[in-house]
Amino acid sequence: MGVGIKVEKLNAWFGKTQALYDISMEAPANHATAIIGPSGCGKSTFVRCLNRMHETVPDARATGRVRIGELDVYNGTAAVQIRRRIGMVFQKPNPFPTMSIYDNVAAGLKLNGFRDHARLDEIVERSLQLSALWDEVKDSLRKKSGASLSGGQQQRLCIARALAVEPQVLLMDEPCSALDPISTGKIEELIFQLKEKFTIVIVTHNMQQASRVAEFTGFFLLGKLIELDKTEKIFTTPSDKRTEDYITGRFG
Amino acid sequence: MPETVTATSDIAVAPISLWRRGINSFATFASAAAVVVVLLPLGAVFGYLIYKGIGSINWAFLTQIPKPVGETGGGMANAIAGSAWILLIASTMGVPIGIGAGIYLAEYGRHRFGDVIRFTADVLNGVPSIVVGIVAYAIVVLSQGHFSALAGGVALAIMMIPTIARTTEEMLLLVPNTVREAAYGLGVSRWRTTLSITLRTATSGVITGVMLAFARVAGETAPLLFTAFGNQYWNWKINQPTAALSLQIFTYAISPFDEWHRQAWAGALILIVLIVVAVSAVRVVASRGMLKGAN
C-alpha cells in the first residue's frame, strides 16, 4: 500500500543558489500527483528532495520537513534507507548496461544483500508483469542486456527495477519525455494501475499528461509552489493568475 | 509545397562533383595509408624476430637453464619462469593499488587534492624506468641486504600504478552519471554502487588499461638490473635474485658469443609471444561474461 507524503517548509540550494523556497504540500496515498511548471522552476529538484537524491549532487543541500507515511525523511533515517522505500524513475531510461534484464530488475534487492533466489525469481516476474514488460522479455531474461531493449522498453524496465524493491512511493521525473507516443501511452496506462499499490508523484512537461494521469496537480514557478489542487480545478479554474497564464500558454 | 519538394529532390539527385569524389577517395586512401604506417613497425619487428629467433627455439630452450660459457645448448626456462614470477608479484601489488587510486580519482577526487594526485601520477608515468629501479633498489634491496624477485616486482608495480590509475579514472568517468543515480535511487550505498555498478560497467576499459600497463612493464629491463638482478639458476624464492627474460636478453646480446646472440633473439621472440598470449587470454576470459547488446 502507498502512504501519503507531507512536505513542510522545504528549501533547497545548489551551492549558494536557492532552488526551492518554502515548499509545503501534501500528496495523498494511492493517488497520482503531477508537478508541472516551466523548465528550471525546481520541479525535478523538488522530487529529488523527497528521496534525498538532491544531496548526491556536490554542494547541494536541503532543509525542511518531509514525511513519507511515518518516515521522517530528513531526520534520523539514513538516506539509503529512505531510497529503498521510495522508488524513482528518471527522465532518460537508465538501465545498468552490463547487466541482463533479470539482473537489472533484481539489482536493488541483490545489491542490498537479498539472497533468496526462488523469491527473487518471483519478484522479478511480478515486477516485470506490473510494468507490462514481461511478455516482451520473458524469453531472454538472462540472455539480453538491459541496454539492448528499445527506449520505451528500457523505461518500463526501469519502472520494474524501481518496483522490485517494493517501495511505498514512486517518484517519476518526466518519465515519458524521451519516448514516442505509443510508449508514452503504455506508461500512462501503467501509472493508472500502479496507483492501486503506490503513491505516485510525477513531474511532467506535458499538461495533457498531467490531466490524464493525476488526480492532483501542483504548479511550480521560480522555485515556489504557486498552487496545488485537484487537477480539474487547476486546468479549468485555477485560483492564481500565474497558473492560468502558464496553462493557457501565455508564457513558459 | 510542391515547389519545396522539387527543390529538395533536385539537391538529392544532383550528381556529386568529380572534385568532391576525388577528395573523398583521397581522404579514405590517406587514412588507410596511416593504418599501414602504424602496423608496419609492429609487423617488421615481429617478422625480424621470427627470422632471427625461430631457429634457436627448441624444447631445450624452453625447458633448460643456461649452460656454462663455451658449452652449446641450454635454454632460458628459468628466465621465462622468472619473468612470469616477477610480473605476478608486480601485478598483485600494482593492479589493486592502481584500480583503487583510479576509483578514488574518478568518484571522490574532484577537488584540489585529486588534482595533485593526478599530476603526481602523470609525472610518475614520465619518470625514466631506470630511476624507478633505483627507487626500488633503495627501498627494498638496501633494506633487505640483497637483490630479490620482490624488489623487481616492486619496481615494475611502481611503473604500472600510474597507467592503471589514470585509465581506470578515465573509464569510470565515461560511465554516465545517470547509471550511478539509478543505483542510488534504489537505496544502494555509495561504495556498493562504485564497485558493483560503476566499476562493473567500465570493466572492459579498465582491463584494457591493466593490460596496457602489463605489456609495457613486461619487457622492461632497466628497473630489473639492480633489483631482480638476474640469476643463472632456478629461483622460486621471493627474496632471492631472479632471472628475467629481458635481463637475459640484455646479458646475451652484449656478450661476444654467437651462440648467446642467437639465444637472445629467441628470448626476445618468446617474450613478445608471451605478452601477446597473456593479453589475448585476459581479453577472451573478460569477454566471456558479456551479454548480447551490452556496450
What features would you describe in this structure?
The complex is a heterodimer of chains A (252) and B (295). Chain A is of the alpha/beta class and 252 residues long. Chain A has helices spanning 43-50, 79-85, 101-110, 117-130, 134-137, 151-164, 181-194, 207-213, 231-236, 241-247, and strands spanning 5-14, 17-27, 32-36, 60-68, 71-72, 86-89, 169-173, 199-203, 216-221, 224-230. Chain A has a domain at 5-94 and 167-247: P-loop containing nucleotide triphosphate hydrolases (Rossmann fold, 3-Layer(aba) Sandwich). Chain A is built from ten helices and ten strands. In chain A, the strands form two sheets. Chain A has a six-stranded mixed β-sheet with strand order 6-7-8-3-9-10, sandwiched between helices. In chain A, a hairpin with a 2-residue loop joins strand 9 and strand 10 (224-230). The mean pLDDT of chain A is 90. Chain B has 295 residues and is mainly α. Chain B has a domain at 81-243: MetI-like fold (Orthogonal Bundle), CATH 1.10.3720.10. Chain B contains 13 helices and no strands. Chain B is globular. Chain A binds chain B through residues 51, 53, 56, 58, 80-85, 87-88, 90, 92, 94-100, 107-108, 111-112, 140, 143-145, 147-148, 158, 161-162, 165, and chain B through 110, 176, 178-179, 181-189, 192-193, 196-197, 200-201, 203, 290-295.
